[in-house]
Amino acid sequence: MLLKKMTTKSLYSVSRSAACWLILLLLAVTQRATAQLCTGSLGDPVVSIDFGAGTATFAGALPSGTTNYTYVAQSFPNDGYYTVENTTAGAGSVWWSTTDHTGNTGGYMMVVNASTSVTDYFYKKAVTGLCGGTTYEFAAWVVNLLRSSDNNPPNVTFSILTPDESTVIQSYSTGSIPRTSSGPVWKQFGFFFTTPAGVSDVVIKISNSSPGGAPANDLALDDITFRPCGPSVNIAIADGTTTKRICKTDNSTFQFSGTVSPPYTDPAYQWQLSIDGGTSWTDISGATTTSYTRSPTGAGTFLYRLVTAQSTNIGSASCRVASTPISITVLDNPDTEAASNNPACEGETLNLTSASGAASYSWTGPNGFTSASQNPTISDITTAVNGTYTIAITTTEGCANTGTVTIAVNKKPVASAGADIGICEGSSTLLQGSGGTSYEWTPATGLSATNTATTTANPTDSTTYTLTVSNGLCTDKDDVNVFVWKKPAVNAGADQRDYEGTVFQLSGTASGTDVTYYWSPPYNISNTAALSPTVWPVVDTTYVLHVTSPYGCGTVTDAVFIKVYKRVTVPNAFSPNADGNHDTWAIDQLNVYPEATLSVFNRYGQRVFSCRGYDKEWDGTANGVQLPAGTYYYVIDLKTELGGKLSGWVLLIR
C-alpha cells in the first residue's frame, strides 16, 4: 500500500508493504501518528459531513454533543464560539471571505473562533459497524481564516478513541496551519489507521491544539470524512479505456478487468452497478472475480466498479474499498418524430417534420422526392404527392433510426359566391353560393342567415362578403361584393333677396352614389351643371336643383327662391306749370312698393307732403295750395326686408 506523508506545507509519497505498515501500526496504536492520507483506493464514506446547504446565511446549531463550542448566528463569533454559515463575507476585513469547500450552491461550513483551551473539541461523532483489522482514513478540509496578523495559527488534532472516550487509539496533529497572503486556501488534513482485531466501534474527534488569542486560531472546517482505505483497485475495459458511449442497436459486449495491488491477505471481490450516477450501488450477482463480462441492455448511463475487502468483510460497505467507476452510456435509438400536417388539402403546403438535434436527415418519398432538411415542405400540393415518406436520421453519436409518415391529400371544393351586385340603399338582394356541403358567410352584418348556401343581404353600406365552403375535409373561399348605392339627396340652399342687378351665389348640395345634377330654369345662370353657380335674375325667380341616381335609385329636387327688388329712381327736379312736361314728381318704380312711405319737407322742416304707397304723384301743392318754387327735402322708406331708406332734395321749379 502507498502512503502519503503530510507536513504543514506539502505531501510526499512513501512506499511500504502492507505487512510492514500493519506491524508498525500495532506497535504504535496509542501514539500520535504522522499525517498520512490514503494513496490506495478508498471505500464509500462511513462518515461524510459537509454541513448541508441552504438559502439562509446561517444553518443553525449542530446536534447536541457534536461540539463543546457555543453556537452563535453571526459572521464573526468570539473566542469559544462557532457558527455554521455559507460565507464569511460578513466578518469584515480581519478574515478572508470564503465559501464552503464542497462547492454546492449555498453550501455551509463550520466556522470556529477557537477557544484558549486545548481540551475543547470542534467536532465529535461515534462510528459503528467497523471491521477489525481494516484500515480507515480520517480527514477534513481546513482553512486558516486570518488575513493579517496571526499570533497563534490554528493547530488541529484528529483523534480515534474508544467508544467511552477513555483511550486514544490513534491521533494526528496538523501542526500550525499558516496564514496565506493571497487569499483563503482550503487544505485537506488527516491520517489513516487500522482497527485492532475485534474493534468495530470508535469515536472520531477533531480538537483544538492551539490556545486562542485575538487575533489567532480562527478557522473553518468542511467535508469531514471517515472511510475505508485499502489497496489500489484499478479497472478498465478490455481496450484499456474507462468510458464508452454506444448506440442501443450496437448490442456490444464489454470485458472488464481489474487489478488490486497489493491485495488483501484473503481478498474477496464484488462487481457493482449504479444507474443513478453513483449515488447508490447494487451488487451484481455472481460477479465476484477481478474480471466481468457485461452486455448492457436498455438506454442510460451505467457505472461499474469493483469493490474488494478481506473475505470476511466483503459484505460490509464500511469495510471495503472500491475502484474508480467505468462509465458505459447506452444511447437510445433517436426518436424520428416523423409527422406532418396531414391530412392536407389540394393547393396547401405540406409540412414534413422530424426530431431536432440530429446530425443528418434524409427524407425520401413518392415521385422521387428527397430532402436533407429536418423539416422540408412541398408547396401547392395535389393528390400526386400521396404516399409514404421515410425519414432516416443520424445523431452526432452515430445512432440512427428511421420513421415514416403517410400522406393523403384531399380534394378541395371550389367555392362560388356569385357575381358582384349593386342595390339601392334600403333594398336587398339574394346571395347564392355553391361548391360545398356546408357554408359559412362572413361578416354576418346585413345577412338573413350565415350558414346556408342562399341568403338575403341588406347591408347599409357596400360590403364584401366571404363565402367559406367545406366538403367535410377541405375548405375553399370566394368573395362577392354587394355595392350599396346611396339614394340621391338634394338641398338647393336658403332663399335670397336683393335689388335688381345683384349677382347671387347659389349654394346647392347633392349626395348619393355617382349622382348627376342640374339647375333650372337655364337663363341668367353661369353654369346649370355646377352645384354653386352664380345667377342674376331681373325678376323674382325660383331655381330648382335636380339630382338623379344613374342606378335607378330615384330623382329628387329642391328649390331656392330669389327675390329681386326694383331699384327706385328719384328725380331731383320737376316743374308743375301745366305745360305737360314734368308737371308732377314722378318717382320711377316707387309704385311697386305698396307699403313704402314718402315724406317731403320744406326748408323749415315742415312736412308739406306724405303718403303710403305712391299711387298719386306729388304735384307741388300742400293742402291744395301751390307751394313756392324752391328746394324741398324728402325721406322714402321702402318697407322691405332689406330695410332700404332713401333721402335727398328735390327742386320745385315755377
What would the keywords be for this entry?
single chain, 654 residues, mainly beta, Jelly Rolls, Immunoglobulin-like, 6 domains, eight-stranded mixed beta sheet, six-stranded mixed beta sheet, 1 helix, 54 strands, elongated
Q: How would you describe what is shown here?
A:
Strands 4, 5, 6, 7, 8, 10, 13 and 15 form an 8-stranded mixed beta sheet that branches. Strands 17, 19, 20, 22, 23 and 24 form a 6-stranded mixed beta sheet that branches. A 5-stranded mixed beta sheet has the order 48-54-53-49-50, with no helix packed on it. The chain has 6 domains: 2-230, Galactose-binding domain-like (Jelly Rolls, Sandwich); 232-331, Immunoglobulins (Immunoglobulin-like); 339-410, Sandwich (Immunoglobulin-like); 421-485, Immunoglobulin-like; 489-565, Immunoglobulins (Immunoglobulin-like, Sandwich); 573-652, Immunoglobulin-like, CATH 2.60.40. The protein is elongated. It has 1 helix and 54 strands. The model is unreliable at 1-34 (pLDDT under 50). The chain is mainly β and 654 residues long. The chain is 2% helix and 44% strand. This is Gliding motility-associated C-terminal domain-containing protein. Residues 1-35 form the signal peptide. Keywords: Signal.
